[in-house]
Prior knowledge:
two-stranded parallel ribbon, mainly alpha, 10% strand, homodimer, 8 helices, Rossmann fold
Amino acid sequence: MTGLSGSGKTTIAKELEKRLRERGLKVEILDGDIVRTNLSKGLGFSKEDRDTNISRIGFVANLLSRNGVVAITAAISPYRSVRDAVREQTERFVEVFVDAPLEVCESRDVKGMYAKARAGEIKGFTGIDDPYEEPLAPEVVCKTAAETVSESASKILAALERGGYIPSSAEQAAAV
Amino acid sequence: MTGLSGSGKTTIAKELEKRLRERGLKVEILDGDIVRTNLSKGLGFSKEDRDTNISRIGFVANLLSRNGVVAITAAISPYRSVRDAVREQTERFVEVFVDAPLEVCESRDVKGMYAKARAGEIKGFTGIDDPYEEPLAPEVVCKTAAETVSESASKILAALERGGYIPSSAEQAAAV
């Protein structure tokens, strides 16, 4: 998943995780903050460091997904080129654009980060004084200002089924 | 696995991977060099950077192993404290000391690194001018100067079985 801070990536990730586990699938969420602590401590928020962070997440997600674990990544991932590079290197990949208008993300301001960015206390904040490059051809777009979390998760599940990455609910029912 | 450069970690890892795959198990090798490229680019060989590298490997190995993938790690991992920290954080953990005398590792000098370290071209090389802290209570010790690769792999397989981390060969035979 890619999208602005506050767009709803983590919320969707948790709902998606629940729904996948209900189907008996293995799931790991690689959340931006957890990854920053465990894989990317020391990296900042320059383009180079952000790209390195996303490459690492992609490396780990590929290790998991090629072993049958659904790896849900939830980092802002603002740059198109590194997202496309990860897509190339990943055997099983679905790009989800978590698309909410900046005004909506800013009004949510879950972590109080937008206020700090507007006050100039944080520099290089995506959407304020750092770029966000929207995906050109994501497999899924979740318009989180206009749809429920459940709807967003359902769209992603459908894309995973279409790609043949998880069994369809019909196949699952038949197997039971 | 922990041990000096040239002690045989990667060779054992590959043999172990083959034997585990023959049993139908999922396996990933997190080799020191691959990890340095994909997870730890920018880190050097100070104690702090080495510890960070090992923590990251441990984090990824735990993600894999708790999802049923055998994660074989093969980095020098010279410091006891971070190895023990990873052990604490990992649900399913077996420590293998790949134990070959420095003279043997140096005479093998697969990558030509010992020669460079002796010539002073590389600083902080484990075993030459950087410490290696032997494990105090590893689950397995592989004396690679005195045993075959196949024997080393068999000892590790037996430890994995004893720990209940993989089915025993007897259980597997019964299931067929």
